[in-house]
Amino acid sequence: TQAQIGVTGLAVMGANLARNLARHGHTVAVHNRSQSRTKTLVEEHGHEGSFVACETPEEFVAALERPRRVIVMVKAGAPTDAVIEEFAPLLEPGDMLVDGGNAHFLDTRRREAALRERGIHFVGAGVSGGEEGALLGPSIMPGGSKESYEALGPLLEDIAAKVDGVPCCTHIGPDGAGHFVKMVHNGIEYADMQLIAEAYDLLRQGLGLSPSQLADVFDEWNRGELSSYLIEITAEVLRQVDASTGKPLVDVIADRAEQKGTGRWTVQIALDLGVPVSGIAEAVFARSVSGHADLREAARGLPGPSGVPAGVLDESFVEDVRRALYASKIIAYAQGFDQIRAGSAEYGWEVDPGALATIWRGGCIIRAVFLDRIREAYESETPPVTLLTAPLFVEALGLAQDSWRRVVARAAEFGIPAPGFSTALAYYDSLRAERLPAALIQGQRDFFGAHTYQRTDREGSFHTLWSGDRSEIGG
Ligand code: NBP
């Protein structure tokens, strides 16, 4: 039998995607550089469906029906290029090579252009949901040509997560669009995690709640508008007790957050595109701060307020923090979607933000009820310029803002770091402002660098002769 699709790279992600395809009734050719992984997969899971185990790339390519559909699931970076170089010469025009790894979208653009010259469809596909998602239904974000999606879409939609019967997979746009939106997805994930962590810290320090009491709070929140995978797992992590010490696990884990790079990429690209994703950036920096043992050690004795005085905060603080979290989350997601709009315009992708929100409702790490609200906002008759101005978010921000301001003020007063909440509120107030102090900055720039400024009342560029008679020239 010829296989409908093949997967090369059978570490945890590739093996689980192959199993997911086989469990859905597709015959899957499987291959891995070291043959032991292929053997293990077929030995342990061969009964789940129809696999064709292949030892060599030649055998693998020969096992596939045409046009061939090959999913590459290897370590991102040089290994992906090595695999492309190995397989591309064996493929024919019209065949499809899908990179499901976490590639940088600029690498995907380069690879797509090179393979297009050889007549091969290269599809950079973001795959979210970790190993469990890969097996049980991930959120899939394929880029590449429309033509390739016609052949790949039905298979990918088949194995993707489903929400209300709708698959969490759609064609995102040409070349690097899929990996771009996956990158921003991860950036949003960083921001969301940081905000949840701050909410935890504020309630723990502010009200002295224990991790298990906080687990109950998050469970409660998970029944409302914050309902999401990340809130759900937060409760589970907080409830976990360390077997060796008997302490809450969260108190035993070293407080240094690590990162693999997609959050950093999101911010780097946002800077290039000029999109103010301050919530995501703050989240990346907060992880970086946590990892700077040297700075933290040196600064530990710096003066600060002496804790939270007894009786100042009461039970109402829990609801304040919940609302502040929701408002900050709206900001972070709005910024992420702004970045997608900017990337889409820069590279001509025409990404549909409503369709994207739809496929992020399930399978991926940021899956949440909230994404349904975002979908509704973008699918309304008058899609908003930024999500903040969608009527349902205007209402939510209005309801939350008093709490949000109180929480940020309390955090500052009691010396509890809340960079995510604070930056989100500052962004909100900046966008709302009638006038920003940017006018003064323009004056300073003109003073020292003759960079000129524009006026509110007349067209043109102006310069004040600061070191002369201070008259204005230009127009
Ligand atoms: P890894 O990222 O750990 O990669 C291991 C695989 O890459 C093995 O199959 C290995 O083959 C293969 N490989 C390497 Br390394 N160098 C190679 C080369 N030069 N030629 C051929 N094959 C090579 O696997 P993973 O954790 O399953 O992730 C796969 C991709 O999916 C990555 O891009 C990752 O970023 C992405 N991703 C991972 C997750 C997750 O939760 N883990 C989630 C979403 C996306 P070998 O067996 O012969 O060494």
UniProtKB/TrEMBL annotation:
Record organism = Streptosporangium carneum
Ranges for domain 6-phosphogluconate dehydrogenase C-terminal come to 178-467
Provide the binding site for substrate.
102, 128-130, 185-186, 190, 260, 287, 445, 451
Q: What enzyme category does the UniProt record give?
A: oxidoreductase
Q: What is this protein called?
A: 6-phosphogluconate dehydrogenase, decarboxylating
Instruction: Check the record and name the InterPro entries matching this protein.
Output: 6-PGluconate_DH-like_C_sf (IPR008927), 6PGD_dom2 (IPR013328), 6PGDH_C (IPR006114), 6PGDH_Gnd/GntZ (IPR006113), 6PGDH_NADP-bd (IPR006115), 6PGdom_BS (IPR006184), NAD(P)-bd_dom_sf (IPR036291), Pgluconate_DH (IPR006183)
| UniProt GO MF annotations | NADP binding; phosphogluconate dehydrogenase (decarboxylating) activity
Query: What's one Pfam family the UniProt record gives for this protein?
Result: 6PGD
